[in-house]
Write a structure and sequence with these properties.
With 242 residues, the protein is an alpha/beta fold. It has eleven helices and eight strands.
């Protein structure tokens, strides 16, 4: 299943707690804006607590699709709560083989599978896997949501190589020369409208051979910034049509 829309908000529970943001109120704002789906990240909760909190969020905003972060088995076993799974590189590498097979052979077209990547090699491997519904690439910019993060910000030269590779793959899919799942391409890490406007490869998004999606944590919690990004991505869509 392809992610709908151009913005992918991430509800980071620790970030909300640190900033004294009410998570359920934030979801209502996203729902009113028409975003449709979000990822729930809560590294400080155990599996039982995570499921309980996710059920609470689902009850408060049932119209929003909820994508789990990292708890693969939990998400697969509770599809009434979760509509997909996002995995980091280490989390996917640590999966038992039976869970990998379940991910690969998933036949539920309404269930989303996504993975994080931080280099050209990782993006190439994710495409080669052939089953991811989206590939998240980043961090594109410095971010305060992961101040101790071990993944360095992608240099623009590296971003250029990744975008060139992805564009080539999309061209093959478009020509019918490549089979398998056509993944959405998600950029993540410190995304703001002003930063996008200055980025060599992302400022002219209507010229790309694919439609980029932007994952947001801090920007998704700042409603003025979120609305500005939302309106700007609508402009991108109009440019594609014309």
């Amino acid at each position: 299943m392809q992610l709908p829309g151009r913005l992918y908000p991430i509800l980071d529970l620790e970030y909300c707690q640190n900033k004294k943001i009410n998570a359920e109120d934030l979801l209502l704002s996203w729902d009113r804006l028409g975003l449709g789906y979000y990822q729930f990240r809560a590294k400080n909760l155990n599996e039982t607590e995570y499921l309980e909190y996710a059920r609470k969020l689902k009850a408060s905003s049932p119209g929003l699709l909820l994508i789990a972060n990292d708890y693969c088995s939990l998400a697969m076993e509770n599809r009434g709560v979760f509509q997909g799974i996002h995995l980091g590189q280490e989390d996917f590498a640590a999966l038992a083989e039976d869970r990998r097979i379940c991910l690969r052979e998933n036949r539920d077209k309404e269930w989303v599978r996504g993975i994080s990547t931080h280099s050209l090699n990782q993006v190439q491997q994710a495409v080669q896997d052939g089953f991811w519904d989206y590939i998240a690439i980043g961090p594109v910019f410095p971010t305060d949501s992961k101040p101790g993060g071990k993944d360095p910000v992608l240099q623009e030269l590296d971003m250029g190589k990744i975008i060139e590779f992805v564009s080539g793959e999309y061209s093959l899919w478009g020509q019918g020369k490549k089979s398998g799942t056509v993944p959405g391409i998600v950029f993540i890490g410190g995304i703001t409208l002003n930063r996008l406007k200055k980025h060599s490869y992302l400022k002219n998004r209507a010229t790309l051979d694919f439609e980029p999606i932007f994952a947001l944590i801090s920007a998704a919690a700042q409603l003025d910034e979120l609305r500005a990004l939302y309106e700007n991505t609508l402009i991108d869509e109009k440019k594609k049509v014309t």
